[in-house]
From TrEMBL:
Localization terms from the record: Cell membrane
Membrane topology: Multi-pass membrane protein
GO annotation terms (biological process): phosphoenolpyruvate-dependent sugar phosphotransferase system
Residue stretches in coiled coil: none
Pfam family name, one: EII-Sor
Main location, first listed in the record: membrane
Keyword annotations: Cell membrane, Membrane, Phosphotransferase system, Sugar transport, Transmembrane, Transmembrane helix, Transport
Top-level taxon in the UniProt lineage: Bacteria
Protein's name according to its UniProt entry: PTS system, mannose-specific IIC component
GO CC annotations, alphabetized: plasma membrane
């Protein structure tokens, strides 16, 4: 456990990051950052001075969001909000990664309600957009499409996240730390592991094809069999790239011969 609570500056920096991501202030690149807990986890780790622990925790959170889609830009649970709260709580309380999922899921659900409220606030700005569009006012459209929605997002997410981090995270951390190791968190730990498996299953269902399932099974059982050797992820990535190249090479030559 690195520290007893978040400082005011730490809470503010993380809150600004979440607002930046949720507002899409950097264009569609921030949309990918919003959907990826790993990026928010990295920022939290840097701010709290414990990147390795933050990324270990975030990796488990990432798994449950792998198969989620965002129809209309709306997620059923906000990954950035969930990670921004769950990772500091887990670090402060010394929770296991799967136990952190028990914090991330409800927080992410609350974050989705906050994002929906942002949509509601933006409906008032849309009227300005219609007005400026009818007038062919370029500067007005820039104001109503980019600047004002960004300001609304910052005004909404920065205070909410700051309060949640500065005042709420230490309280949740103390509460969860007192329960950690007990029967309740044993159950939550098991459920958290199941949610991670569900996330992997969803991503396979969304982007996977039955004929490619053998590669997933190959990777899984190879990782299990070689675990005693302590091989790192980079080595697995290189081996995977070589196998993918050989597969493409065989397919290409087969197509040319036909």
């Amino acid at each position: 456990m690195g520290q007893a609570s978040l400082s005011s500056m730490q809470a503010l920096i993380i809150a600004i990051w979440v607002a930046l991501v949720e507002s899409r202030a950097l264009g569609y690149s921030t949309l990918n950052l919003r959907f990826s807990p790993l990026m928010t986890g990295l920022v939290v780790g840097i701010v709290m001075g414990d990147v390795s622990t933050a990324m270990t925790i975030t990796a488990s959170i990432q798994l449950i969001y792998m198969g989620m889609i965002a129809p209309g830009g709306s997620m059923p649970s906000e990954p950035a909000v969930a990670t921004a709260i769950a990772v500091p709580v887990a670090i402060l309380a010394g929770l296991q990664p799967t136990e952190a999922i028990a914090v991330a899921v409800p927080v992410g659900l609350l974050g989705s309600y906050l994002y929906q409220f942002r949509f509601f606030l933006n409906t008032f700005i849309v009227r300005l957009t219609d007005k400026y569009a009818a007038e062919l006012n370029d500067k007005g459209l820039t104001l109503s499409i980019i600047i004002l929605p960004t300001i609304v997002s910052f005004a909404l997410f920065v205070p909410a996240m700051y309060i949640g981090l500065y005042y709420g995270a230490p309280v949740i951390a103390d509460f969860t730390a007192s329960l950690s190791g007990g029967r309740i968190f044993h159950i939550l730990d098991a459920v958290g592991g199941g949610l991670a498996a569900l996330g992997i299953a969803l991503i396979l269902q969304v982007i996977g094809k039955t004929k490619y399932l053998v590669f997933f099974l190959l990777a899984y059982f190879t990782a299990v069999m070689l675990k005693p050797l302590g091989i790192n992820t980079v080595t697995f990535a290189i081996v995977g790239a070589i196998i993918a190249y050989l597969y493409i090479l065989v397919i290409s030559e087969s197509a040319e011969s036909n």
